[in-house]
Amino acid sequence: MEASSLYQTYSRANLSFARGEGVWLETADGRRFLDCAAGIAVNSLGHCHPALVAALEAQAGKLWHVSNVYAIDGQEEFARKLTQATFADRVFCTNSGAEALECAIKTARRYFYAKGEPDRVDIITFEGAFHGRTLATIAAGGQEKYLEGFGPKAPGFVQVPFGDHEALLDAIGETTAGILIEPIQGEGGVRPVPTEYLRELRKLCDDNGILLILDEVQTGVGRTGKLFAHEWAGITPDIMAIAKGIGGGFPLGACLATEEAASGMKPGTHGTTYGGNPLAMAVGNAVLDVVLTEGFLEEVQKKALMLKQKLAGVVDGHPAVFEDIRGKGLMLGLKCRVTNTDLLARFREAGLLAVGAGDNVLRILPPLTITEAEIGEAVSRIEQAATAMESGLERGAAE
Q: Measuring CA to CA, how many Å separate 232 from each of 77, 95, 121, 278, 372?
């Protein structure tokens, strides 16, 4: 095989897909895989969803790019749909989750600058978090493996242990602008933030006059059974970053904010060349039309309960392989007793795709459109992989 000219920043699986439909991916030689990775929670409506294909094809024949120098009708429609369905009054369109987080951070800092408090720049974050790969967002995430080799850590981020409320209280000071948190840590191992704790964070921000910023890049757009995961706690943030599922596979993100929180973002303070382009807006609007259809999210909740119950049975039946199951909706994590990458290889041998995470977890992130029959098939393949893993453990012990 000819040597790759790509940057060698990925340890890629020896798999390449030629086509996809719904929850299925197929290689050029005809091998089919049930996709419970969904492009890392991106393909929210599965592969080649007819509504998304139609929207993209129709827009591709009309207009691709004009830049944000001009009004873009699809952007106005997209923002209107989001503000009508959420806490937000303002929306900034981006190409990715990292860009949405950058916008969220800048919005928070600019808010205090405009209020005459330019020293309020610090964002408090939590150990195990993942907020992106830019220099600012790796500093926000604080994980050494992502920071190593890229020079001084960008200032303005104060990290506290996950779940340590006293440390959080101690971290709040005169330079604090906000608290940034994922309702469920994805890369960190599918670790949910307890509902009551999210409520405490909202109160803490209100009491201290700082902003609550949510990273719903992975948890949003129906992934947990609500449009956004914070809705389970009955709270609203001041600023929120979204991406992944909102584009259904097309690069798209957004930063959402209240009128108050966005009040410092005046003309010239932020921008994007490609963000909110007509192609992205056509797809984003189509995604929202499907996800906001009456009964869609209730169906996600129903299917999520079924999947979690069936997976719990697999966990109970294979205690040498699995420790527990965690997560919410169709964002589930299998905590492994064996090395998660070894088990992931067994999954692939069984024709199922998942994705690794921290804390020795495998993420199960199927498209929201997965059927009950496909859930049964997915669980059957996971069971097959677990059984094969156990057989390997037994042979290893015998040798």
A: 26, 27, 29, 32, 24
